[in-house]
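Q: Can I see a sequence and its folded structure?
A: Here is a first one.
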Amino acid sequence: MAGVNFLDKKMSQHLSEPVNAIFDNENASAPGYIFAAFADQGTSTWHRRTVEWFLTYLITEVGVTPHAQRQGYNAPELENAYQSVIQDLKRRRHAPWRKNETVRLVRDYLACVDELTIVKMICQKQFDLFKGMQQDVRKFETEDNRSRRSPDNSNGESMTERIKWALNLVNGRHDTTEKLLIDAKQSMEALFQLRSIEQNELAIVSDSQNEAIFLFTGVTIVFLLLSFFTSYYGMNLSTIVNTPRTEGYFWRLCGSIAFFIVMVVTLGAFRHHLKNIWKSRRPVKPTYSMV
């Protein structure tokens, strides 16, 4: 009640003001607006000069905030702002795929759904409050009609009209918020379906690439063997001047190096598995308890 109650194009300026200044500002605060409205005219505009009428006016004026009606709709309503957010999320949903963009988009969707759920709950509580007040106001007006008490200002807004105005405003906001909430959830489900289809397409492309790599690997292995045999049988070390080396020397040198490399690579690849086997075969030391 002491904060900014009216949506205005100068809201950022109002939020930077002290609390007392906001409370007295009729363009930002509902109590400030009520004080300014009754400061000059007093109770002349009241339908009935009673405490019940004043409390009904005060509760309905504060209870339906925030809204932009008092400022001539110079700023978008709360539900319109959320509608723009959902449209932006839909636009991002159809954007080309980027790394980690889906995670950020889902988090934004969940944040929007949570906020709309809270707004819907607030609207429902406001509606229940005004619905209960409507029954009490009907009792007051019934008693006034029985006692044939005429209103102090027949042109003024009655308590029933105030409650009806508040109920229509809150009910419309509740319905709009519910539609936005359903739209956000359906859009998020469509996002999941779209990403699932993209995952399937990527899996198909990956399978095709794996088949191509498998074929290329098979061809490479065939020609690798051919290259090895042609290189080996093409060697003639004895004809090289001042070289007493033979093919036996080639096998002793290259074979030892190749065996060492294969062993190192194998041990590095299976080091975790070998480590677990070694730990499982180590004897467990018995533990003794002090009795």
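Q: Show me another, different protein.
A: A second, unrelated one:
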Amino acid sequence: MPSPNPFPAESDGTPSPEPERGTYIPSKPTDLRGPCPAVNCLANHGYIPRSGRNVHAGQLHSAMDEFGLSSVLASIFAYPPFIEVPVDKSSAAQAPNPPSSWWTTLLKPIAYILRGFAMRPAGQTDDSGAAYLNLDQLARHNVVEHDVSFSRLDAGQGDNLTPQPHLIRDILSASSNGSTLTGRDLVELRKRRYACQKEDNKEMVFGASQNQLASAEIALILKVLGNGKEVPVNYIKAFFEEERLPREEGWKKRSGWSVGFVEMDLLARKLKRMFGDVKGEEKPVVAAVL
């Protein structure tokens, strides 16, 4: 396990040197983190601000390269959350009414199409006028964060940000062979989580859109950390338990070609079919694009 802090404070009281980009440093209580282990991992390695504050879209997009994602796929994940949430709308999925919607579509068609993934509070910019997010703002419910998470409680249970040790233990014990987690293992785990949350959280929201996002998450785990079919359990342990890239365990990002949208989407669709249809729990909040 990496040292908790490879840059201890100097004995004479001088500030510790800034850790190198890529060095793993666990988050401090004063740091902000979100519900996504992957994004938290990037912060813990210093690829985006370690504090979890004032993160810019370009920084997040660039950092996605550490997972071996293509520029297109990285853009799909990195840029939509920085779209501004309309100040007069309770849901980002609610579009402006015509005729302003037609004008908005003409001026910023991509932003309009992806408006349902907006997470940035209205007017939130830094001193230079650049849009930014704090990582805890990624917890905006039913945008990308969703119920039936592998490692977090549902929003209705009060804390959809903090990793839950008992849930992470469930992930690690879900392996059918004790050494790797397959796509089937992870889908079956999601099914068990779904059944459990139906009992524990009567306000649970998990319909077709959430299932699509959840399936895309599994696809990314398999493609980024594994070979597309299975992932070593020790890689998953580092990723979920420490929110760390499992380089010490032997992981390397894919070389030769990047993880692209088409291959990831095809696998996500296959995993979604494996999970089966979900009916009756979805609310009209946002539709998944994957």
